[in-house]
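Before drawing any conclusions, I needed to go through one protein's amino acid sequence and its C-alpha cells, quoted below without any editing.
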Amino acid sequence: MREKMRVLVARLHRDDHRSAGTDHVRDHGGGHVVWHDHVELEHPVQILYPIPMLLLCIGPDTFRAQEKARELENAFKQKYDPSGSSVERIMPGKDAVDEIAQRANTVSLFSPRRFLRTSNLLTDGAKSKQAVLVQALSKDPENIIVVSVESEPPSTAIEKALAQVPKIIKYEFPAQQGAGFFRWASEIAGRLGIQDQTAIHRIAEATDGDSWFAWNELLKLAAGGAHTAEKTEFSPSIYTYTEQYLQNQDGWKDALQDADLASQLLNTLLSQARAALRVRDGAIDGLHPYVVKKWRNNKIISHERYLAIALRALFMQRAGFSDDQEATTIL
C-alpha cells in the first residue's frame, strides 16, 4: 500500500494543474510588490516571465502554498536547469538570511540563476537581518530566485522593511471552507483517480478547511483503503493536537505516537503559540482573519508560558541537544 501511495503522489505531481494569473503592482518607493490572482494556466512554466526576486507562497493553507512552491521549482528546472543542480533548500530559521546572502554573492556553475527554497523566511528570520535580506535580493535581479512558504501573511512592518526589494510576488492561500473546499477536494480526488463522489463529499465535510487532513484521507482512499467515508477513520491534524496542548486539553500526546506528526509538532506549536499571543495583544496586522477568529474563540491560560516552552524545545532540537522525540519531552 505504501508503494501504491508513492506512485499516486508521483502521478499527482506530474499531472497537477497549476495556477497562476495576472500580476498587480503597487509602488513602494524603491520597489514594488506584485499580487497574483489565481486562474488556471495550461503551461505553468510561463509564471517565470519576467523573473521576480522573491516569491512568497502564503498560508494559512500551507498545503496549497507548498504545492505552489513545488510548481515554481519545477518550472525553474524545466526552463533553466533540468538537472536541478542549482536548486537548493535553505533550512528555516534565523540563519536563513545569511545563507541566502552568501549565495547571492556567488554565481552558480550549473545555470545562469540560483533557485532557493525555504519556509517562514519573513517570520522566523531575525529582524536585525532584514536589511541584509533586502541587500541580497536587490543586488542582481537576474541571479537569484528565492521562494518561501509562509505560514501566515507578513505584517505591515515587514512589508515596509522589504519595500526596496525590486520585485516580490505574493501567492496567497487562505483557508477554504464550505463549497470552495469541496471543489478543491473534488479536484484533488479527480487527479488521484477517485470516482466515489459520496466518499469525496464525506471526506470534504469531515476535514472542512484542513487541506493536509483531506489530502491524507484521499490518499488512503486512492491507495485501496476504505471506499466510503463511514469506513474511513479520520485522524486529528497537527493543528488539532497543538490547539489541544495550548488549551491544556487531553489528547495532544497522541501526536507523539506518529513519527510524521511528531516531527511537525514543535514548529507548528511555535507558530500557533505566537499567533495566539498576537491575537491576545491585538497585534493582528498581517494575520489571516481565520487565525484571528480561531484564537479569539479559543482561550489559553498562559500565552507566554507556552511560547517559552515551545521556543526552548525547538532550541534544544535545532542546537543538536536532542532529536525530535527527545525535544518533545520538554512539553
Q: What stands out?
A: Residues 259-280 form the longest helix (22 residues).
